[in-house]
Structure formats: structure tokens, C-alpha cells
Amino acid sequence: MRRVILYSVLIAGAVVMLFPFFWMVSSSLKTFQEVNLSPPTMLPADPQWSNYAEAWGSPPSGFGRYFLNSLVVAVVGTAIQLFTGIMAAYAFARLKFRFSNVLFMLVLATMMIPFETRIVPNYVLIRQIPLMGGNDIFGEGGAGLYDTYAGMILPGVASAFAVFLLRQAFMAVPRDYWDALRMDGASHWTFLWRVLIPMTMPAVLTVVLFGFIGRWNELLWPLIATQSESIRPVQLGLMLFSGDEGSLYHLLMAATTLVAVPGIFFFLFVQRRFIEGLTAFGVKG
Amino acid sequence: MNIAKKTALTSFFLAGTLLLTSCGLGAAASSGEAAISAESVDGTDLPTGVEIDFWHIQATIYGEAITEMVQEFNATNEWGIVVNESFKGSYQELNQAVRAALAGGGAPDVSMAYENDVLEYVANDVIVPLDSYLESDNFGVSEDDLGDLVDGVLARQRVDAYDGHTLSWPHGNSSMGLYYNADLFAEAGIAEPPVDWDEFLAQARQLKETTGLAYAAMGPAKNAVFYNMLRSKGITPYDTGAATTEFTSRESIESLELLSQLFTEELVYTAADTEQEFTNERTATEIGTTARTSTKIDQIGDKFDWSVALTPQETDEPITQLFGGNHVILASADPEQELAAWLFMRWFADTDAQSIYAARTGYSPAVKSALDTPLLSTNYQENPQKADAFENVFVNAQIMPPTAAGNAIDDMVTGIVEEVVLGWVTPQEAAERMDAEATRLLQSAPQN
């Protein structure tokens, strides 16, 4: 009996969680008229598979280009964020230096600064970065990293969340491992990559997943940091179906389905490790 | 020097360089200019191939129309000007992008903006007044062409707060109209849309009695309908210059009483998407933006007969709300860039471009002559509701007095009107609260 109740609750929960996805796919196959019907239809009367082709080809550069852009930004951005996170976390967890706790608190404090307040400083930084994009040594004369992949990636390459999570994970590994390796003459670098990273893989994967999904879903920063349509990511592509004067919901849902697929597959691939990471290091999603 | 010291020095140098460059903030923003003369505009030698950036908020069919128009301009303009258009999200996101660009450089030459944004740009000295361009012999706008602009559209480019200057130029606008389902009207024995608010109430009761349906649905933001009621009675809700309001006037309290009555008798209800209520025949009317006329045509198809009329009026000078933004030139300290920006803006507001825009979207053209173009006249013949939106509604549209406190007043009025329709406060109490709050907001608004 308890089992029946348990499964009933789980199934009900799964239905609640999956219904938005069902609704997204169902709406993506409706006509413009049907998607605006009220009360709505659960299933499309005549599935419009052509909505996917239309949505895919709607932006001037096509959604294929947007996917490539998102992939570049998400993969490179996540990789650099992971690298900087590991380096900083190792320093905070394993190295002794003056003011380390104060510095760590400062890093954590940056998590409380809302993104909106960082827009202008970040923009100035990428626009006036010296010796890039036609800029001189004082950061003037050119466009800097504006309207480039680097401009989209740079402001998020250091993440306080990644530093925090990895530091906690590194600190959970007993110091005896380091003592043993040091006896054999190993360096910090060897200890980090040969011992710490493999032992804290759930935390590393959690940082990767959060970083990737965060980058993949970014909207406001790419909107501000880019001008050319051909360099923009998928999330900005979705905005083309919804504006101040109304939305094309059927195409929006088709495009959203396409955009959601990589994230779903990525999550399925790493979900076990991801959940291990969350539970092991006390992160609440 | 050991590696740690080298690294520290390198880091210090890099951080210092970034800090120094960051301190350059505002260099581009401080180039706002004193008005140049029409003669100097005429004397500007425009080289071929000047490139300008144009930021806008238009997506869906509106964005596609802009792309088409920009391509048309780039291909046909005699100066070889190249416009690079860029979609920048909503007005709020566009405003954030412009603010960032004004601080860090790379601001667009032409941007869409509401009057409140224009006042903010004026306060920061980053906008180019258009008077000299308008008066220019070579690049100006003739009296005939000025007369071709729809009155309300021209008026919003030179509102009182601009101190006699023209600071923006038309983009393409919409207005607040009364959509009605002619089939449901016929079923209820209603011949025509209501001419005044008493008839609005009478028709709503008649429709409820005969069909059992509600007359209209209103969205959560009811301030626009309330303002529309006031203005149709000859009342401007507030005076930005004097920082006074008309919220406690007899007309205002009458309007609040009418709203309360409509909701109490369940003749009107609140819905998140009023268009869905109308197109799915759950209400006989919808008070909404005429920008949605083209999408209604697609949604309704042959389901029922419908059109759009002017909202009820109670004076000899009909008036309704004018929606949508304008174009402005942001200062670049380069006369050639600014002239190229003006020439694009002038073309955008002219007959051919406006006919494309109005034919492809639900916007009404800013100039009357667009109606005579083959493209738009054919489009309006095929879609008579769009012609009605222009002739019945758009030509009577005017904006609300612009003020930096506008959004705050809108939010406050929306909240209090909601309390009225829910029966939580009396119209008299609501009016007094609106007056007190709006007066305080107007007095504290920086541009008033």
C-alpha cells in the first residue's frame, strides 16, 4: 500500500514536471490560429511539422548559426570558468597566505552584486580593453571586444559560485593525501590534477553543468555586447518571435523546443554526477 | 626576479591598465552639442558610404518589416549610406544598452526612444536637436511634407517639454481603439459601436441580457482605459509643468464610478490576454492597441464579422491614446554621421517607407500620403479593418503628457483602479489618493 502511495505521488510529480514540456511540444505543432484558441486544445488538430522548418529558417542567419554561436560561448566560457575556479579554489583550500579568509569573503560577496549593476562596467571593460579590436594602449579608437565571441565570454570567466563549490569540495579531501604525495616529491600541480580533481569530480561536473546552462541561457548580456545578428546566440533568436506588439507562439514554441534539446541531453548525460555534487556539497538549486 | 614576483607585477600592470581605461568612461557621452545651424547642415559634404547603426525594439513581423525597409534604403539612397540595424529587445533592454554604450562608447547613431527617454537624453546632453535638419534647404522637410504627417504624430516630436525644439522623428505608431464583433452586436440588436460612455454601459447591459456574454475584457493594467475615459471627456489627467492633476475632477470620479459599475454588474471582467477573449468570441468588444489589427485578421479569419472604431467620446474634439516610439539621433560629434542618421530617419518617416511598414504590420502610417501608394491602398482594400484603424482611430490619437514620473504614475493609477473595480475603495477615495500620489511624483520628477 505504501508503495502504491509512493508511486502515485512520484507519478503525479512527474506529470507536473513534464506537463510544460508536453505543452511546449504540443503548441509547437499548432497553427497560429489554433495556438491562440481559448479554451486551448491539448493536442494539435493537424500537426504542423513545418513550424520547425519555418522557425529554424526565420532569422536571417538561421538557427544553425545561432546554435554554433551558443555552443562556442557556452563551451569556451564554461572551460575558462572551470579553470579559473579550480585555480582559485585550490589556492583558498590548500595554500596558506595572508588575508586568505578576507579575500575568500570578498569573492563570495561578489555573488550579492546584481547582474544589472554590472552591465555598464562590463560593457566599458570589453569596449575599452587595450590593444584589441582597434583600440590603442588606452583602450580608445576601436570597438575593443564589442560584437565578438570574446566580448560575450569574458565577463563571466570568473565565478564566485564555482570557486565556493570547488573550495568546499577540495577541503573535504583529507590532507593525508597531500602529505603522502609530498613525501614522493609531487608538486601542487600534480596533486591538484592527479588527485583532487578525480576525487571531486561530482563538484567539477556541477560547476560545468551550472556554467554551461548559465551560458546557454544568457540573454541580456549578449544583447548588449553584440550588434551583428550573425554572432548572436540562440536565446536572442527566440526573442525574434516575441515582441512589444505580440508573439508568434507556435514558432516560438518550435524554436524553444529546438533550443531546449541540447540542455536536456546534456543534463541526462551528467545528471547522476550532478545530483551527487549537489547533495555532497550542500548546494541548493 | 622570481616567478611569483613576475606574476604579481604582470597582474598589477594588467589591472592598472584596465582601471585606467575604465576611467575613460563618459568620453563619448559628453559630446552632446549646441544646436548647429541649417546653413552648416547644408554645407556638410556627405561622402559616399557613410555607415550608421540603428537600434530598435522590433521583432516578429515588425522586425521583418524593418529589415526589409533598411535593405530598401541601403539599396536606393543616393548618398550610399549603409544602415546597420540591430534588434535590442524591449524598450527597457534597449535603454540599458544605450546607457552602457553612452558610457563606454559605440552608441548607435539612430535609436528608438519614447518621450521619457528623450527627456533623459536631453538631461545628459547626448541628443541631437533636429531643428536645423528640418530647416535645411538641401536635406530638410518642406511645409507640404510636414502637413502630410498625421497631427498627433507630428505633435509628439515637439512636445512642450522639448522647449520649442523638435527632438525626435516618427517611427510608426498605433493607437487605442474599440474592436467590436459585428455578428454579436447584431445578435444583441446593437447597430453601431457606442459613441459615448453612457451608450457603452447601455450596450453592455443589452448584450448581457440578450447573449449572456460580457461586453469586454480588460487587462490587469487598466490605467490606459481610465486615461482614455478622462481624455474623451476633455480632461488631461495631469499637467507636468504645473505638477497638478485632474484626478479629483467630476469627470474622473464619473469614470471610476463607471468602471466600478461595469465590473460589479459583470459586464466587463479582467483577463490576462484580452485579445484571446475577443477573438474567441467570449466578449463582444476589446479596447486595445490597433497594432494588433493585422494579427487579429490572421486569428479571426472568417469566424465572424468585425472591425475597429474610435473609443467613446464626449467632446467635439475626439481623442484617443497614441502608442509606440520615435527615432532620435544620439550625438557622435561627427557631422557626417549625424547627417546620414537624419537622412535615414527622414526616409523612414516618408511615404514609401511608411507604406511598407503599414502594409507589413499593424502600425498605421505616420504620413497620410502613404494611403495613396499602390502597396498600402491594395493592402487596405484587402484588409478593411486596417483602413478603419487608420481612419476611425489613428488620426485622432495623441500621446499623454511625457514626464519622467510617467511609469510610476501609471503603476500607481493601475493599482488604485484595480482596487476600485474590486470594490475595495470608493471612487472618491481612489481619486483623492491618485491626486496626492501623482502630485508628489510629478513634483519629484527630475525633468518637471
CATH architecture of the largest domain in chain A: Orthogonal Bundle
Low-confidence spans of chain B: pLDDT under 50, at least 5 residues?
Answer: 1-33
Low-confidence stretches of chain A: none
Q: What do we call the CATH homologous superfamily of the largest domain in chain B?
A: Periplasmic binding protein-like II
Distance between the termini of chain B: 62 Å
Q: Mean pLDDT across all residues of chain B, rounded? A: 90
Radius of gyration of chain A: 23 Å
CATH architecture of the largest domain in chain B: 3-Layer(aba) Sandwich
Domain count of chain B: the total is 2
Number of strands of chain A: 2
State the name of the first-level CATH class of the largest domain in chain B. Alpha Beta
Structural class of chain A: mainly alpha
Placed side by side, the strands forming the largest sheet of chain A appear as 1-2
- What number of structural domains do the residues of chain A give? 2
The number of distinct helices of chain A, counting runs of at least 4 residues, comes to 14
Give the terminus-to-terminus CA distance of chain A. Answer: 32 Å
Oligomer state equals heterodimer
What labels would you give this structure?
heterodimer; A: 285 residues; mainly alpha; MetI-like fold; B: 448 residues; alpha/beta; D-Maltodextrin-Binding Protein, domain 2; 2 domains; 20 helices; 49% helix
In short:
The complex is a heterodimer of chains A (285) and B (448). Chain A has 285 residues and is an all-alpha fold.
Structure notes:
The complex is a heterodimer of chains A (285) and B (448). With 285 residues, chain A is mainly α. Chain A has helices at 2-28, 32-35, 50-57, 62-94, 100-109, 115-127, 149-153, 160-171, 176-183, 188-199, 201-216, 220-225, 234-239, 249-280, and strands at residues 242-243, 246-247. Chain A has two domains: 1-48, no CATH class; 64-280, MetI-like (MetI-like fold, Orthogonal Bundle), CATH 1.10.3720. Helix content of chain A is 67%, strand content 1%. The longest helix of chain A has 33 residues, at 62-94. The radius of gyration of chain A is 23 Å and the shape is flat. The mean pLDDT of chain A is 90. Chain B has 448 residues and is of the alpha/beta class. Chain B folds into two domains: 46-173 and 324-395, D-Maltodextrin-Binding Protein, domain 2 (3-Layer(aba) Sandwich); 174-322 and 403-444, Periplasmic binding protein-like II (D-Maltodextrin-Binding Protein, domain 2), CATH 3.40.190. Helices cover 49% and strands 13% of the residues of chain B. Chain B has helices at residues 3-22, 38-42, 60-76, 91-104, 115-123, 131-135, 143-148, 151-155, 182-187, 197-211, 223-232, 250-264, 274-279, 293-300, 335-348, 351-360, 374-382, 384-393, 406-421, 427-444, and strands at residues 51-56, 82-87, 110-113, 169-170, 174-181, 214-218, 238-239, 244-245, 268-270, 283-289, 306-310, 320-323, 326-329, 397-398. In chain B, the strands form three sheets. In chain B, strands 5, 6, 9, 10, 11, 12 and 14 form a seven-stranded mixed β-sheet that branches. In chain B, strands 2-1-3-13-4 form a five-stranded mixed β-sheet. The relative contact order of chain B is 0.16. The chains are: A mainly alpha (285), B alpha/beta (448).
